[in-house]
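Section 3.1: Structural characterization of target chains.
Under the original work plan, the team committed to producing a structural model for every single-chain target entering the pipeline before any wet-lab resources were allocated. The record below documents one such target. The sequence was received from the expression subgroup and is listed exactly as submitted; it comprises 117 residues.
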Amino acid sequence: QVQLVESGGGMVQAGGSLRLSCAASRSIGSFDRMGWYRQAPGKLRELVAVFISGGLTNYADSVKGRFTISRDNAKNTVYLQMNSLKPEDTAVYYCYCLPTLRGGGSWGQGTQVTVSS
């Protein structure tokens, strides 16, 4: 199973920026899915941004134009640049990967992002 370690969370004022990192324990170049989800208190975990096999990306409507997912295959790391943060972006952010459609996925431990108004 792939181990994922997130970093970069913290507290920021509305309008600020943060960059999250997710380092994987092995090469991510061939993964079918890899990206970010988030879970706010009392809410279901939801997709934020994800790479899909073939280089495509998918973003939640609520973050389009503000968040950018990127990757560095040489470092086995995926990033989430979050700009123009809003209080409603406050959540625990989880990294997720699915190496192949035939196998199971892996989750990171999560990193807290808090945006104050």
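The chain is about 0% helix and 50% strand.
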